[in-house]
Amino acid sequence: MLGLNAPVANRPAPIPQAATELWELIVAYFKQETTEPLKGLVRVVGFGVAGSLLLGVGVVFVAVGVLRLFQHEAPNAFDGNLTFVPYVVVVVGLLVTAGVVFKAGTRTKRPASAPPATKDRTL
Questions:
Q1: Top mean-pLDDT range of 13-17, 34-38, 52-56, 79-83
Q2: Residue 66: CB partners within 8 Å, gap ≥ 6?
Q3: How far apart are CA 49 and CA 42, in angstroms?
Q4: Distance CA 86, CA 77 (A)
Q5: 10 Å Cβ neighbour count for 86?
Q6: How far apart are CA 36 and CA 27, in angstroms?
Q7: What distance lies between CA 121 and its chain's CA centroid?
Q8: pTM here?
């Protein structure tokens, strides 16, 4: 039991001071565990959005360039009723490219520790 002459270091903190310290501890923990990781997440998402926008603009430029290449290099081949052919070729090319990218992005990845699946060939 603490007596009247107990050293200051051994005395418990008064209730208001303990509440203030607890509040500061909660705020510091909240900042450490939520706001700092969110800042990193915002940075990563920002780079992802910027990269996807730049890739989208690049794909549009390439598609228009390929369309103009078809129209300039073979102007007589697509005259009359065939003026739509370069547009169809570019749209089909874009759809094929989108399909390949989608397929590559959604494939399941085998764990590194698992050996590749092989068929059992017993004779």
A1: 52-56
A2: 90, 93
A3: 10
A4: 10
A5: 20
A6: 13
A7: 42
A8: 0.58
pLDDT 10s digits, 86-100: 999 999 999 999 999
DSSP string, 65-99: HHHHHHHHH-TTTT-GGGTTHHHHHHHHHHHHHHH
CA-based end-to-end distance of the chain? 85
- Length of the chain counted residue by residue: 123
Tokens 């009359």 belong to which residue?
80
**pLDDT above 90 for 113:** no
The label of the residue with tokens 């969110």 reads 38
Between CA 65 and CA 115 the distance in angstroms is: 45
